[in-house]
């Protein structure tokens, strides 16, 4: 065996050795991970394979627990309490970390180009290249402005820890400014007009947090200006929280109404200047401009520039989001994986593969599947195509045999036409996974587990299903398990949508939310800090210094 020989057998034999049988050092495969967020951190956390030389590149030397970020904007939780330094994990795992941003991926030469960030006391940047054998892209996404003029310049985003701190300072500055003498009433109203753009979970939660702050704290500390404050939530669609159950949307809209949050649906922002925000009303087509003191922009996410370039390179230029297969391998290049918000899984349609599925299952080439053949193939289909289970559930079929019976009657043999007919509707249940921490962290864990048994599986490639490839596949495709979503609505009320069509709204869900998030906080350190922040808030109220 030569040094360059990378046969899987050899790596198994020498799984823990640093030298091969000839005394040559084994070159470990170099895995470069981009990003230290939900997906990247989770991948690194579960990766336990001594055969990899792992290098992490991220401009941020910490993991950020984003679900609690809106609570940082009003001081319920401190920013420090929801970050976890990446260096702790690096030391524990023996990985290497570089604080830099990847600015270019050269997939054909398996190289990346990186740039360090401008530090506060270190002016200028440093650039360097890195080689990789395997690249794991977990860079997340950037806020999407839809090219609305003035947004980059004048609005705040709520994505990073710094954003939350800036928002917090800005809110308090507005109140201090409004409390100064020689400010006209009109100006005071303008300064204390807070506008939130986007009725998704983040926009809604931020509005609720801001409202709580106004009611519970501002009323006491700025009693003279309280009456001038106003919160407006702008949403282009018909409803806020439209990804949630209708009951939750209705409850949230009603609650906001009662709280006096000015909810404007059907109004799309067309521009932001230093003093005014302009919206186009969908019904009338009229453009309305209103003065504001602060705007927070939270309308969704888009691909980062480095990913857009990369997509051009690998022939995905026409797509909106980077596509992977169900094993999280980037389509169109070799040795590159992508997970989290930066990518979507390009799920295959059953109907595209149906002829192939049928012929593989039809062992004797008889043109029909008997009961045994049919049952054999069904299990694989359910595993490979998640839309099948969703379809069965939606239509209240206990299993796929029932579905077939509805198409095939009492016949025991099924031909291709009946087979197609039975499955003809299942693809309608395909949907992309949401861009959430839940998905990102599950993908990180999944990929780490694949990497942990990579050598064993390389012998039997992770390829497609039994009936499509040779032998049994070792890697299951990625499967998402939904554990429910929460939408904190302020005033100690949280809406929870749990699996099994269970919706709960109120105080009990608030406590469920506290306990779920406390249990998900990555380390005992952050857990302690957040719980003490919560306690402090209950006892002493929020800190209102900027
Ligand atoms: P991120 O977690 O964003 O991580 C990206 C990482 O890549 C960061 O470390 C970043 O510094 C780094 N990076 C960026 N550019 C580069 C580059 N060029 N090179 C190298 N590294 C780079 N989801 C839920 O499930 N529940 C919630 O309650 C919830 N609340 C949220 C609240 C807020 C305010 C926000 C903003 C998001 C919330 N989310 C929530 C969504 C969740 O945070 C994201 O889905 C999740 O962070 C996606 O993980 P990721 O690893 O893809 O990206
Ligand atoms: Mg990440
Ligand atoms: Mg994160
Ligand atoms: Mg994704
Ligand atoms: Mg047959």
Which key phrases capture this entry?
546 residues, FAD/NAD(P)-binding domain, Recoverin, domain 1, 3 domains, 5-stranded parallel sheet, 27 strands, 38% helix, disordered N terminus, binds flavin-adenine dinucleotide, binds magnesium ion, NDH-2, NADH:ubiquinone reductase (non-electrogenic), NADH dehydrogenase (quinone) (non-electrogenic) activity
Tell me briefly what this model is.
The protein is α/β, with parallel strands linked by helices. It folds into three domains: 8-59 and 100-141 and 303-344, FAD/NAD(P)-binding domain; 151-302 and 483-540, FAD/NAD(P)-binding domain (3-Layer(bba) Sandwich); 350-429, Orthogonal Bundle (Recoverin, domain 1).
What does this entry look like structurally?
The chain folds into 3 domains: 8-59 and 100-141 and 303-344, FAD/NAD(P)-binding domain; 151-302 and 483-540, FAD/NAD(P)-binding domain (3-Layer(bba) Sandwich); 350-429, Recoverin, domain 1 (Orthogonal Bundle). 38% of the residues lie in helices and 21% in strands. It is of the alpha/beta class. It has a 5-stranded parallel sheet with strand order 5-2-1-9-21, with helices on one face. The chain has a 5-stranded parallel sheet with strand order 11-18-12-13-14. Helix 11 (350-361) packs antiparallel against helix 12. Strand 25 (485-490) and strand 26 (493-498) form a beta hairpin. The protein has 19 helices and 27 strands. Bound molecules: flavin-adenine dinucleotide (FAD) and magnesium ion (4 copies). Residues 35, 37-40, 138, 140, 340 line the site of one magnesium ion.
